[in-house]
Hints:
- The protein is an alpha+beta fold.
- It has helices at about 25-30, 35, 130-155; strands spanning about 15-20, 50-55, 60-65, 70-80, 85-90, 100-110, 110-120.
- A 7-stranded antiparallel beta sheet has the order 1-7-6-5-4-3-2, with helices on one face.
- It is globular and about 45 Å long.
- The chain starts with 12 loop residues before the first strand and ends with a helix.
- The model has no long low-confidence stretch (mean pLDDT about 95).
Amino acid sequence: AEMMTTDPRLMAVHESVHVGCPVEEAFALFTTGMGExxxxxxxxxxxxxxxxxxxxPQVGGRFFERFVDGDELQVGTVVVCEPPWRIIFTWTTxxxxxxxxxxxxxxxxxxxxxxxxxxxxxxxxxxxxxxVAAKFRGGWxxxxxxxxxxxxxxx
Length: 155
């Protein structure tokens, strides 16, 4: 059987950053504190309506946006949660055929924590996959930069 070749444009997006705080703090800021740092002006479905974003750190927890009028849009669900080391949540929208998956790991280092993010599964989206992957490839660096900046403010 021939191996299916994956279009390189559908490859997982990887981002790694370093924050100068212990893993427990980094995990808490990324999850419970997501609303404090996520750049909704740059990365949201609600756009001007987007007021807040939440990631509930428990299996079955929701990843969702809340709009100024109180409406909520669920983007994904937490499928693995191992505080303070790892969280995996799905990310999908109504016009995708399948869901993608975001895995974030937190690794202690001498001077803080290494945070590795991997967003995969773009091959499951269908015809829109390559466009969606390109958007996230361009978007995650800014989101993770915002996370690092916020972590520096809390120290």
